[in-house]
Structure formats: structure tokens, C-alpha cells
Amino acid sequence: GSPVTLEVYYEGKTCRIFNVTDKTAANIFERVAKQVGLAADQLEIQYEDKGNWIQYDGGSSQDPALQDIKTWTLKANRKDSGEPQPKKMRDSQAPSSVQIPELKICSIYRVKAFVDRKTMLDKVQEYLQQIPSKYKEDGKLPMLGCSGMKGIGKTAMLVHIAEILAPSMGNMKGLYMTFNGASELTNVFHRALKHEATPKALADAFAAALLVRCGYKKDDAYDAELKPTILWLQQKLCCTNEDTLVICVDEIGDLQCQVQEPTFNMPSATMSSVMTEVDVFKGKVVFIFSHIKDSVLLTGASGSGRQVLSLQLPPLSPSVWKELSLLHKWQNAASDHAEIHQLLLACCGHPRCLVDGLPAALRQRPSLLEHPTEASLVEARHVIIQTSKFNDISTSDMDEVIFKWFSLKQSQTLNVSELIANGLLLRLPGDVDVLNPLMLQSWSAGATRQSQTPMRWHLSQVYDADAVLGPNTEKKMEGLMFHYEALLRIGLNGEELPLREFYVGGDIDSKFGPRQVRAPLPSQTDLIVEMPNFKDMDTVLERLRAGWIVVSQEQNEPGVEFLTPWQEHGSGKLLVAAVQCKFVKGKAAWADVSRKLQVVKDSLTSEAVQVFPV
Prior knowledge:
By secondary structure, this protein is of the alpha/beta class. It is 40% helix and 17% strand. Helix 3 (118-129) crosses helix 5, helix 7 (199-213) packs parallel to helix 9 and helix 19 (454-466) runs antiparallel to helix 20 (478-492). The longest helix has 16 residues, at 590-605. It starts with a strand and ends with a strand.
């Protein structure tokens, strides 16, 4: 007949065994026994029939094997009251010594990834020191989880805990393992699971992966069970009764669900099952997990009825590159080339970008720091993105995300947690989120007026303007600002809003802030038109009415760098923002601004146009 699912009740818990095709009594007893940790001859099983519990022996015309139902509801009990002994491994299976392979991670990576990580390590050390008291509270250890965006340093943190911190504390042994997508442990786990998702099956599949991590042959590990595996590992690591075994499990999120259960969360269920299974060791076995999303760690803890201690790795400062001796050549080049300075800042203090990505880019193009051409910079960004694994998003999705990001009306619809998880959004200190500048600039690279969309074109011009310094290294903001303003106008997509929602931060005359407006746009890709100056007001006004941002090439002559047109709701009256770009401390000196603005304001006001300063 067709496969069935076994729903088994045992000691107040429920587990499911999927896709059972062999429905003989012997196989049913064996499958249930494996899940509850007993031998088949220690079990008695009842099945539910129309609300009644009936003893199941196999072969009866009434037992579920002969009924046409897809899910069998079973109740399992022990025949005796004794505690079951964990199944022992065959001596021929166990390797003669613990063969834990060397982790391929260079020492410089560990050092650099731990800039500003002392606070996190202190929390881990405090947790490990308090294990005895934490266990005695309710017999369940809290779940310790390390979370953070891609490349933030979770792997380096777990390696440090397993190989340096735990051994240094005395009476502790550490072990690191990873389910990274490139790891064979993920495949071992799923093969050992055999499409079953019961707590016992998940814990034992984890045991198979743990054994392979320690040198077992895969074929000898698939029938492993977690409790005897832990006992074997403690013995091989020479753990005394006083020792605690600390197992750091990286990339638990790569255990994706292969069971047809849409609400089933494989990483959370696995963490919960493993923690529950090792509670019998009374705090002598500790797991520390890492996952991109903190929510998955929380779900795994709640599933096993325990607390979670979350270590959310904070981002580093965007200027942390100045402190890393590994990057001394880059630091020197940044003082000579604004483009290199821009590239370093674009890494946003992201550890993997700085420690892996930049050296990879330099190996690809050794002349990059001496001669940073446009082509070599495009190549460098591509190498850093690939090395940092920021390339898990399609071009069409990227287009949609970027348009929404620059839309003042749609940006709130973005899924921030998903964008952080795939590396498109980077979190800076102070919980400030920015679109990944490396990916953003790569997306706009090579844009031309003829071949690219207006948003792509103006974004490329923003980055070009950002890498330009004026005399005496004064930052020139004008080009950056009017191309950025063009980006935001495109993002409005014809929708109306109050002016104060466009010009934020008090940089607009308060009388104009509430005015409801829309941004007229010309049909061309480029929204910017440059003029020698603002003396030919007839032409200036014509361009403004057509939706252009009008830029004066004599930018500092009248004190106004560019003019931006707005159309007022209802009346259709033209309102013009006269924009000055200047670094100020505190609030703008509006009296000084108005004085410099007067020439432009008088000329435009005569044409029944209202002008306001920004």
C-alpha cells in the first residue's frame, strides 16, 4: 500500500515518523523503538481506533496495518521501569584516536575579526563559568546562540571559543563543527535523517555529522545515536567527571528542511532536539550555535522550554580599516587616491570584506593601489562581493529593492531582516541600516545616459561625485547632492508628499514644509541640466517648468548651487527649491542664506514663482 506516517505518543511527548513503507509489525516496533530510545522488546504499543486504545501485536484484522488510513496514531510504553541503556558502538567502528581535522582558518583572520569583540567573549566566559548554577535551576541549560549578518565574524567567534577560550578556562574541552553549505556534514545529516523529522531522529542525525567531524567514515556513522556518541567523544577527549565539553556548531541554518512540512523549521527543531537529548549529562555538555537570524535561535530555545542567551555580534565602525595593520598599504593609498578611500569606506567595517575581500582584490590586481583605474575598481568591488558571499540575490530582485529603497513612499515595505541575511543591507553602529555600498555601486557601474535607467544613471553619478576632492582636500558636495536629489525624485514615481518629508532635518524654511507637492520629471534619463549661470532667467524658468534640476556652473557666485522644481497640489503653482551645499555646525544661518539667495529669488518671483531656500 501507500506510505504512512506514524504519530507516536511517548512519555508526554509526540514525535512523527514519515514515509513508512514497510508496515509489518516487526518494522513498526523497530522504528518506534529507535525514536524513543528503547529496544523493540522493551516496548508495548497501542493504536487508536475510533477513540479507543487497542493493543498492537501485528497480524490482527483490526490493527492499523490493515486499515486504509494515512496516519497511524500510536501510544508507546515501556514494559519495565528501568532506565534504558544507550546503545554501545562497536569497537570496530571507533577510530583509535580522535581524528579532528585542522580547521582551515588563518591566524590573521582570527586576530582581525576580533576587533571590539572583547565584550562578547566576556559574556561567553561568564556563561561557561556559571553552567553548574544555571543547570540546577530547572535541569535545562539555556541555549547560547551567536547571530549576525553574513561575514560579521560568527565563525571566528566560535573557533575562538572552541580552540582558545574553553581550553584556557580549565576543566573544559572545545570542539568546532560547521554545517556550512560546502561542508560534507550537511549531507551526512540529511542522509542519516532518512526524511524523518522526529526529535530523536534529528538528534541522531546530528550525532552522525558529529562523528564524521571527528574522523569517522561516513558509512559507519549513519546509524549513530547522540547519547553514546557524546559518551564516546568524552572518552576520546579524556574528559574527567569535572570536565565540560563545549561543542560550537556553526551555520546551523544550512540544515534546510527536506520534509514536506511548510511550517517545519529544521534548524530550530534540530537545536531543540539536541539540547533536550543531552540534558541527561547535567551540564557537562554545552552547545553554542550560530545563525544569521536571531529569531531562529529564539524559536529553537522555546521549542525545548529553555531560555536563550543571544550574542548578536554588533557591526564595527566603517572607519575600523584605519586600525588594522593588515591594511597598512591600503591606508597609505587612501591618502593619495580618493577612489581607494571610497572603496575602504564602502566596506562599512564588515570583517569579511576587510580581511578576506580586500586582500583578494589586491591579489587579482597588484597595481590597484598605485593606479586605481575605473576598470580595476569595478573588478575590485566584484572580487570583494564574491569573497564576502554577498551575491545571493537575483538582478530583478536587486532592481526592485533599490527602487523601493530610494522611494520615500515604499521603503517601509522592504523586509529588513531578509536583506540583512543575504548581505544586501548592512547594519552600522547605532542600528543604522544602509544598502550595501559595494553592491549598490556595482549595480550602477557602467551606466550611460543612453543605455541605463534614470535611477541607475544618477546613482553612478553620485558615486563618481563622491570620489572627488576639491582644493586642500575640502569635500565637494554639490555634484553628489543634486544627483542624489534626482534619485529621490525618481523614487517618488509621481506621488505627492509634503516638502518637509523630502527635505528632512530642518534644512527647509518652515513656512514651506507643510506644502503638498509632486516632482515633475523630464522624459530623458538625465534629470540634470547645467547652465553657465542663472542670469538667463527665461531659459532657467523654461527648464524648471519641464522638470529639470538646473545647475549653475558658477555655483558659488550667487551662493546657490542648483534649483529644483516642485508642483504644488491643487493650484499647480511652481515652487522652486534654491539649494546651497555647505557644511554647517548646528542650524543654518537663514539670514545669511536669504541674503545670498536674493538675486535668484527676485528674478523668479517676478514670474509668479515662489522660491524657498534649502
